[in-house]
Amino acid sequence: MDGSEEALRRAAADYVAAEEAASTAAAAVEIGSAAFHAALEMSRQARVTYAQVLTEHGQPVYDGLVSNDELLPPAAWSQDDFAWADDEDEPEADAWCLTAFTGGSAEGALLRLEADEKSRLVRFADEPFDAWREAAEDRDSLMVWAFDHAGWTWVAEPYGFFGSQVKTAQRLAPRGAYVSVYWNVNGVSSLLHVVDGSVVREIDLLFAADEAVAARLPQEEGLDWAEPWSAALTLQARLVGHGVDRPDWLVELAELGFTHEL
Description:
2 domains, 7 helices, 8-stranded antiparallel β-sheet, 35% helix, alpha+beta, globular
């Protein structure tokens, strides 16, 4: 390993450690308190420092790592990439809440979302994901899991809904970008896009085709809202820079999770 690679490895490790420390600190205090904002500042400074090291070594800096003033430009995502979500024969397509946000971590997100005192965080490095998921299904429990990927934290909720709420966005990403897609077996559905705690776009997916064009984001160009789930996932991918083009991706990257009783 040359000096540049070693410096990047150390910088990444320092960044992850600082983010985890900030997330732990923020989760332990009241939202909006001085201590909460101090934790957010610690998180921000960690991102700034990491971005500086990336820049010094000629590496790309993900939009949202330092500032969320500018959203990612539309990527070359096609709605066909997400056709699985509209496939009635796809067993994984029934109901999801899929959330991506910047400025946090997987562990910090789950600590904020734990549903009750029975919840416990499980690290899939210690307990295999398949065994955890099978046990949750046997207990008829809802599952929430998370992972960090390419500058964003992802939270996956099969049959869940936490991420679809504005208050969740403000709790997880008070100073970050946040994009959540939600649908259930009854057709209740939404896309929520929040930046720094303020709603940029909120869509009822079943009525998106009827909205005025002026209300739409540039990243919505060419979307067919007659296929609402795939359209929403495409928009999410264009805003985030990567997306859930197959449900297995959510499992392959899963880091930790918790369950709660129905």
